[in-house]
Amino acid sequence: MSFNVNHTEFPLKMYHPTPGALIGWGAYRMAGEEAKKLGIKHALIVTSGLRGTGIIDEITGVLKHVGIEVTVYDGVTSNPKDHEVHAAHKLYKQAQCDGIISVGGGSSHDCAKAVRIVEAHDGQSIREFNGMNTCQKPILIPQLAITTTAGTGSETSWASVITDTEKLYKMVIFDPTIITSRAIVDPALMRTMPPKLTAWTGMDALTHAVEAYVSRLGVITSQGLAIHAIKLINEGLRQAYANPDNAEAREKQAWAQYTAGMAFNSAGLGITHSIAHCLGALFDSPHGQCNAIAMVPVARYNMVACPERYADIARAMGVDTTGMTVMQAAESAVEALDTLRKEIGITENFSSLGLQEHHLPRFSEVVFNDVCTGGNPRIVTTDAIQQIFRECMDPAVEVEAEVLA
Ligand SMILES: [Fe+2]
């Protein structure tokens, strides 16, 4: 008797554990105690600064109250850059820190993970760590990740996405050794987000959940987390966008982004994220905005590969699919995603971000080679990616492109 274990592309699945997390209103007040448990005596806070919110001053006070020294690197920008990682690492060495506390959204957490990689590898360029499992040495520096946006999931994940400013692309570093040591998810810190940022980050979380739910790498546990995150976002995102002080909605979004992060930690993502990485690196466009624009055309492309999954997504988004065929239900999921996006004010397209027809051959190669493409449920070609790009562009531009062709 013989059997072929290679009958599927991913015969083995892996569930990745996530770090412990404190979740709830006022959780940030435990930052000092949690940092002490990690052995941190002198913390480097890695952040964008969160100017105008008072959050960094507040957390600095909480840390100093328990005797922890604090040095602040506040130079992180959206789509965090390789040189920001090395600037933060230089400060870490100069101040003789022994741990990192990242405060902010995914950019701050990802930059902090990258600083830990550089420190563990004796100052080696972060540009040498793109891809899966590229760390050669153990990461010993602890990282406490305090999340102030409801989108990233980076406080739970083993991923760090850093822009290589020489080659102009986003490195996606997936390595279990860089996972954070502890997370704090506090809806109180998320109330300072303006509506636009609430919308973008919320759509990032939704993309994490949708891509994890349909991913070829998904496991039963990640699918359960993903579908629950979709339900929470459907219940909370509109209200959090419309009223920053809606406590119930903020709390749902806090849980949703964390849950979606846990889901993609094991399931991976898909080409919506590959596209967002590409445009984020080349145009410095907000990650959540790029996801929100790409997710509907990508869902329409992927739907035929796993219509039952998209039908589940429709139901999680409140669609009554009674009497529909599976394909009709799947199509209704695509419509529900599109409706939600528009209801929270995301009506832009990639043309308005600067994408033009002549970019597509090169950009489609970048998307094809992104590490997230491996999780996409439907086989991808560069031609298909170009067509998805066109659907994300202004129709007028598409017509012009066809005339030129
Ligand atoms: Fe994302």
UniProtKB/TrEMBL annotation:
Known SUPFAM superfamilies for this protein?
A: Dehydroquinate synthase-like (SSF56796)
**Alphabetic keyword roster:** NAD, Oxidoreductase
User: What are this entry's molecular-function GO terms?
Assistant: alcohol dehydrogenase (NAD+) activity; metal ion binding
Q: Which Pfam families match?
A: ADH_Fe_C, Fe-ADH
Domain Fe-containing alcohol dehydrogenase-like C-terminal, by residue range, is 198-392
User: What positions does the domain Alcohol dehydrogenase iron-type/glycerol dehydrogenase GldA occupy?
Assistant: 22-187
**PROSITE patterns reported in the protein's UniProt record:** ADH_IRON_1
User: What is stated as this protein's family in its record?
Assistant: Belongs to the iron-containing alcohol dehydrogenase family.
Q: What is this protein called?
A: NDMA-dependent methanol dehydrogenase
